[in-house]
Amino acid sequence: KEIFSLVSQMRRCSLSISSNIAEGFSKQTKKEKIQFYYTSKGSLTELQNQLLLSRDVGYITNESFQHLATQTILVDKLIVGLIKSLRKN
Q1: H, E, C per residue of 46-61
Q2: Percent of the chain at pLDDT exceeding 70
Q3: How far apart are CA 66 and CA 52, in angstroms?
Q4: pTM for this prediction
Q5: C-alpha 74: how far from chain center
Q6: What is the CA radius of gyration of the chain?
Q7: Cα of 86 vs its chain's centroid, Å
Q8: pLDDT in tens, 38-85
Q9: Is the pLDDT of residue 23 over 80?
Q10: C-alpha span between 15 and 35 (Å, rounded)
Q11: Distances, alpha carbon 65 to alpha carbons 17, 50, 55, 85, 87, in Å
């Protein structure tokens, strides 16, 4: 039951990341766009925490954790890039 709940929460976070990026893209003002991108970044941080917990309790291997953590760092850089590009213009 614990694993099911954790997996469910991780799926919700993942969906929230992409959904907030998509919603932010559709907004008219820079301020609105940036707010949605920051919300997406918050969901990404939640996902990173859940990955740490999954590793620490033995639900995933350290190798799987490293692979997934690397991907989340890349996603974080992409979101930060979106925010920076809006602030420049």
Answers
A1: HHHHHHHHHHHCCCCC
A2: 99
A3: 10
A4: 0.91
A5: 10
A6: 15
A7: 19
A8: 999 999 999 999 999 999 999 999 999 999 999 999 999 999 999 999
A9: yes
A10: 17
A11: 19, 10, 6, 30, 33
Q: Determine the Cα–Cα distance for residues 40 and 17; give it in Å rounded to an integer.
A: 4
Greatest Cα pair distance in the chain:
48
Look at the alpha carbons of 30, 33, 36, 38 in this order and tell me if their dihedral is positive or negative.
negative
Q: Which two tokens stand for residue 22?
A: 């998509």
Amino acid type, 71: Q
Decide: 20 and 40 in contact? Cβ < 8 Å.
Answer: yes
Whether 3 shows a pLDDT value over 90: the answer reads no
Distances, alpha carbon 8 to alpha carbons 5, 48, 50, in Å: 5, 14, 11
Burial annotation 17-47 (CB, 10 A radius, 16+ → b, else e): beebbebbeeeeeeeebbebbebbbebbebb
The span from the CA of 88 to the CA of 31, in Å, is 13
